[in-house]
Amino acid sequence: MNNVRNNYLKRLKKFIFDDNWIEPPLLINNRNKVLRFDIESKSETDSVKLIKNIFDDIFYVNSEMFIIFYGYKWHCWKQGKKYFKKFSLNKIFYTGYASKSDELDDAYPYIVVCLTKRNKLKMNKYLLDYLSDEQSCQMAFISLKKGAAIQMYDSRGLDLLSLDNKLLSFFRAKYKSYIDDEF
Q: Helix/strand/coil (H, E, C) string of 84-135?
């Protein structure tokens, strides 16, 4: 059992730090693996519907998802907990600075990686704050099963990262009116 858990953690760390660089903005760090969704010009209703549909395509209602909280040494993690049901973020897998630089200090984002279930996310509360640019922290949502990550940077849009070109093609075709190909 311990060996299975260790392999799972190795896959997660490889996905986050080796295959991709999950540090905002995802787009800059992973040029050919990201779709940028533009919602700035869309209505709030359309934006909420799009985001919920993307989450439905990546995560099943009861599936596990990893959350990466970005911020300054624990501040952001504590602020971001309000978007989840109590005691649903008890499994912390990684804490540390997220930077490829050798010089680490408080200027670099500190990350906390947790495991939870998708149905533990208070989606409506998060989307309300997100669309009004009042979310308390930056988060990325990861599905190891799909090999995909969603990073909602601000009310202008979100990035979808995947190693799977077929998955990216599926999203590009399904949501072509929302994809920003001009980046």
A: ECCCCCCEEEEEEECCCCCCCCCCCCEEEEEEEEHHHECHHHHHHHHHCCCC
